[in-house]
Design brief:
Blueprint: E1 4-12, E2 15-21, E3 26-30, H1 37-47, H2 51-56, E4 69-77, E5 94-102, E6 107-111, E7 114-116, H3 118-127, E8 138-139, H4 143-148, H5 152-162, H6 166-282, H7 288-347, H8 357-373, H9 381-441, E9 444-451, E10 460-467, E11 473-474, H10 482-497, E12 504-508, H11 516-532, E13 537-542, E14 554-561, E15 564-569
Parallel strand pairs: 3-13, 3-14, 8-12, 12-13
Antiparallel strand pairs: 1-2, 1-4, 4-5, 5-6, 6-7, 9-10, 10-11, 14-15
Helix pairs in contact: 6-7, 6-8, 6-9, 9-10
Amino acid sequence: MTYIKEVILENFMSYRYSRISLEKGLNIITGPNGSGKSSILLGISVALGQTYTERGRRLGDLVRKGEDIARVTVVFDNSSKDGKKPFPWFRTDEVYFTRYVRRDGEYWHEVNGRVTPKVEVIRYLSRVGINPNNMMIIMHQNMIEQFIYLSPQEKLKTVEDVMGLRIYRERIVSSLEDLKNIQEEEKVLKGSLENAREQFEYWNTLYSKYLKKLELEEKLKNLTAEKYWRLVHEKRLELDKINKKLKGLEDRIKSIRDKIEKETFYKNRILEEITDIENEILLRNKNLERLLNNLRVKWMEYADKHAEISQDNVILSYMIKELKEMKKENKRIRDRINELVSKAKEYGEVKQKLRDIAYIEEEIKKTELEIASLGEIPGNVTEVYNKYKEIFEEYSRRVEKLSENKEILLKELEKRISLWQNKVTSLVEKLQENFAKYLNKISAVGKIELINMEDISNSGLVLYVGFRGSPLSVLDAYTHSGGEKTSTVMCFFLSLQDYIKSPIRAIDEFDVHMDPRNRKILLSLLFKISEENPETQFIIITPGILDDVPKNSNVLIVQKTMSVSELYKYR
């Protein structure tokens, strides 16, 4: 384990040039107020890159008045222990951590004379267990008073920082931030989803009407096809009927013509017979009376046959005229059938049994009314519907995925909160024992209480204390005396230090405002802690008189002469 062998201050605050030799174990730096004791601890902090010192002041103000640049160096022991060096990157037995600070605030780090980024300096120090930003490792002046004035929430955060539990809070805060971002994104996304839903539902209604219209139009097409095929069927029946009549009429005409031909033949024979009779009469046949009678009979037969033929010709002419009209009707029906078939084919075939034309036409009217009731439907309804459907489904998927992520994050957040609560609660339970033990040394009792642990943003730590038999009460800046406040917080800090692994511990003027009795008790306590941890280097700065200083302790006295601080070794 390493330790600080020396601190070199050059043009730093009240020091022109000073080399402060420190030893392993207990180092006590004392001297009057304003002599420059705290500057030594501040110099160590600056050299090691403590962020706290950079926040608290302008680094340029640390340069000695009248100078342009200051240099602070902390020399660590790097001698081998069991064949291993604390800083294995360096072969030397000493490692020099140096920081240059200019009046204008510019600075840079060096390690063993080589310019080194601050992040590398922190990495080297972490290798030996030193975290310069841990306020319990290097406790500056007024840190106790500052802690007293912190809110319970700030106190808890401070404890988490020094005990390395900040990461658990940061993970929760990170999850809460992620959750907040998800909730904000979810809010925006749900708003977009709602807008998309409204558009989608509007166009979905139109699209449903459009599909219904297509269905009805298909139904109307089928009904229209059925209507035309029904008309074709009826016309074909009508054609069959007229064809039968036409065939009957043609047969009757043929029969009459045959009859007329036959009767004409008989008529001509009668006429021949009349001619024969007349010839016989002209020959003065003695049977004249008989011949005249026969002539008269034949002329009557001839007249009857002629009349009959004339009547049949009249009938025939009427029948021929009727046949002509019937053929025209036949052609008209055939043309109508062809027209209807052509029209029917435009609408398709009909597989079902053809229904009554009146029923079909009634169904057509109903269907047309249904189509009309759907109203005007935009021609691009399918395109727009598909567009908004895609948008709606995309937002739905994103909201669903976000909800899944939110659920996962909530479960992870619950785990992180539970882990943080367990870590902090377990730490406080451990701290409580030593806190009570240290308070007992100064005739006091105390308790550490966690509050609002269910709400990390409002969670806090409260210290209770009671001196010399008084009941426990909350430690605050106004109820207790300065010594009581300082003593209580010092006991709490010592409890924290018991659980911090570091090769060095430094405390600056913890005993300000402390009564002599408690100061002596706490100094003795620090001496005892130092004795129980021989491998740890303790640097204690105090302005008070020292009594009962342990043997083998390194006591340094700081004095200031003519604005220059100087150190003297007491023993």
